[in-house]
Write a structure and sequence with these properties.
Strand content: 35-45%
Mean pLDDT: 91
Low-confidence stretches: none
Distance between the termini: 22 Å
Order of helices and strands: EEEEHEEEEHEEEHEH
Radius of gyration: 16 Å
Structural class: alpha+beta
Length: about 190
Amino acid sequence: MLEPVNGARAAAVLILFGEGPEGPDVLLTERAATLAAHAGQPAFPGGRIDPEDDGPVGAALREAWEEAGVEPSGVDVLTSLPELYLSRSRHRVTPVAAWWREPSDIAPGHPGEVATVARVPIAELVDPANRLTVRHPSGLTLGPAFRVREMLVWGFTAGLLIQVLDAGGWNRPWNVDHVEDLPSEVLNLAARE
C-alpha cells in the first residue's frame, strides 16, 4: 500500500445507504464533464475537508448537501472507515458510512460540479449482468466496474463499492472474464487530470 506523500490533501466521501422504492440503495453522483479533475466520473458525494468542517464527517455531510441536496439532519452517521490514499490525485480520503433515516429530495447541486444524482439499488449493483472489468486500450486492466443507472462506475468508487458489498454480505459471483475497454469518452475525460 502506498503511503501518502507530503502535501496530500485530506478529503471525505459519504457512503449513504437508504431504503428506496426498489429496496436498499446507495447514493451516487456523476461529476460534471467540465471539471478539471475526475471529470464525468461517478462518485460518492464528497470532497476536500475544509477547516470549518470539523473533520471527515462534517465534510462528507456538507459535500452531500452541496452536491445532491442531502439534508444532514436526516442522516445517521454509522462510522468513519480507515483513510485511503489516492496517489494519482494526491488525496487522503476518509469514507464515512451513513444511514439515510429521513431521505430528502435529491438533485444535482451546482451544475458545474455535478451532472447526475442517483439512488442506486443494491440489487442492481450485485446483479452479475451489471458487472464487468474495464481495461485501458493498451491492455492494462483497470479493475472492476458497474453499469448502473446509465453510469459506468469504475476506479476508486467501484473498488470501494466492492469492499462495501463484500462487508455487507451482498456481493454475488459475476463473470470476471467480461472485460471491456474503457470507452474513449471516459478515457479522454480521465486523461485531463
